[in-house]
Amino acid sequence: ADGGRMIEALRAAVLGHPVSHSLSPALHRAAYQELGLPWSYDAIDVPSGGLADFLAQMGPEWGGLSLTMPLKVEAVPLMDFVEPLAKVVGAVNTVVIQRFADSRHLVGGNTDVHGVTAALAEAGLERATSAVVLGAGATATSAMAALGHLGVVAPVIVARDRSRAGGLIRAATRMGLRPRMCSFEAAPDEVARAEVVVSTIPADAGAEVGASLIEVPSGAVLLDVVYDPPVTALAARWVALGGVSVGGDRMLLHQAAEQVRLMTGRPAPVAAMDAALRAELNK
Fold first, then answer.
1. What's the rounded Cα separation, in Å, for the pair 220 and 243?
2. pLDDT digits (tens, 9 = 90+) for 88-113
3. Which residues are catalytic?
4. In the chain, N or C terminus with fewer CB closer than 10 Å?
């Protein structure tokens, strides 16, 4: 069955709102070309509340979906099966469409956790005990899960709006983690003591944190998931203070590579995808 899936011309797409700016098409198309697969990949605008209708109207030509905001949490109850990691995190960013005879099953996965872990590994970080996550949404929850894998059991969560952190707190409980919430105003003090910081907040909000930083631990690692601009104000300040920064494009690359593996059943051609990503970012 997998062999037939490999040579079949299938559709895939990234869904979200807004989605026109997404770099996922460039990454996935480069992968399919390198793998010799006649797959197509598009960006389709689907607003909050619209995912169920989209899934219902999909025909047999579909092979997989990437999901971005605001659909990651909405997708969970719409899946036929949710992989354990995605269930724990409470967010699905990958849908693999499995077909058996006349039936179809939607399998929800989460590759954001892998993306964070792999991006931090590029910066030489494979273990940590103290960490700060800026933000409290679905991406922040995936970052918390990745940090848990690295050994952080009590991450500090900087939430601009604590009322929106319910999903993150529930996920932390499922993971056995003990996050400590702190205010946005307290972020610089917390960041100055952390081995690793993952920022999932917009670039302008991150710039506010960076402007207040006086010091960071030598060699501490920052992953800013924002990839436009390529170097955020927070990242620039971090490096100027002696920290190590890894860009959000690295998380984007690795989470997309894992999506390609899950959707096609083949190892992702990371080098080809990386080249396509760099070409897009240099435009």
1. 5
2. 999 999 999 998 878 899 999 999 99
3. 72
4. C
